[in-house]
Structures are given as C-alpha cells and as structure tokens.
C-alpha cells in the first residue's frame, strides 16, 4: 500500500518536471504508474490534494534531514539544493493554482529551519526573546524572499552562488546580527 502511494508521488513529481501543473491529469499519473484511476482515488482525493500531501512530505523530509546548521544563512542550503534539483517542478508549482499553498509550506519549512538553528546556536543565548523573534523573522523572510525571487526570474541565475555571496556579505559586514 505504501509502495503504491510512493509510486503515485514519484510519477506526479516526474510529470511536474515535464509540464505545467495545470496540464497534469489523474490519467497522466495512473498511466505513468500503470495503475487504475480507482487506485489513485483510494490514496488521494484529487491532484491538489496530492500536491498538498507531497509538498508537506517534502518539507518534513528537509526538516528531518537537516538538524544541524552552521549559521542562519547556511540553513538555506537544504532548500537551495532541493530547489535546484527540482527546478522545473518548483517553477511549475509556483506558477500554478497551488501557488499560495506552496508558499505557505515554503514559509513553514524556512521558519522551522531558522528556529532550529536559533535553538542550537550559542550566538543567540544572550539575546532577549524579542531580539530572537525579530532575527528569526528576518532570516525566514530572507530565505523565502531569495527563493521567490529565483522562481520569479525563472531560475535564470545560479541560486547556490547567489546564496553563498549573500552569506559572505552578511557574515563579513555584520557580525552583530549573529
């Protein structure tokens, strides 16, 4: 049963890499999986439900697999790597009817990552709760802003290099933010 659900998810992401979200049908997915429509509907209500489930699953995997971070900016690395790896799929999601839900999950992931960093970092121990909250919000917004900008620009610049440059600029010019 779990294997069937994973097969449906894999087929959906493969199709999302190939074509826009609104062009993907249940029929496309079941043909790719060699399943019938009833099997799809046993696991998922519809494609938006599948999308929500898979983005949540993706977000949870990023969070689970990245417990330790070196700095607030290096927290962005797991997200950057996933976005680069699945560039077309994320562009298709971002330009789809599921855009708002997708951004909501991106915010959830970014906030969680920054909060985890804050808990682990000795740089933040002496900060007041208000300062910690402000810095958490700042880094979350920075992360999401960078990712949205990259999606808006159709991924036409080197996201990893850009994030590295931002990290070095912030690190070298503003140690007080840490």
Rg from Cα: 18 Å
On the 0-100 scale, what is the average pLDDT? 84
Strand content is under 5%
Number of strands: 0
Order of SSEs: HHHHHHHHH
Shape, per Cα inertia axes? elongated
For the sheet with most strands, the description reads: none
Low-confidence spans: pLDDT under 50, at least 5 residues?
none
Structural class: mainly alpha
What is the straight-line distance between the termini?
47 Å
Total DSSP helices: 9
Describe this structure in words.
With 178 residues, the chain is mostly helical. It contains nine helices and no strands. Helix 4 runs parallel beside helix 7 and helix 7 packs across helix 8. The termini are far apart.
Q: What distinguishing features does this structure have?
A:
single chain; 178 residues; mainly alpha; 9 helices; elongated
Q: How is the topology of this model organized?
A:
Blueprint: H1 2-18, H2 26-33, H3 37-43, H4 47-65, H5 76-85, H6 87-94, H7 99-120, H8 129-152, H9 159-173
Helix pairs in contact: 1-2, 1-6, 4-7, 7-8
Short summary of the structure?
It is built from 9 helices and no strands. With 178 residues, the protein is mainly α.
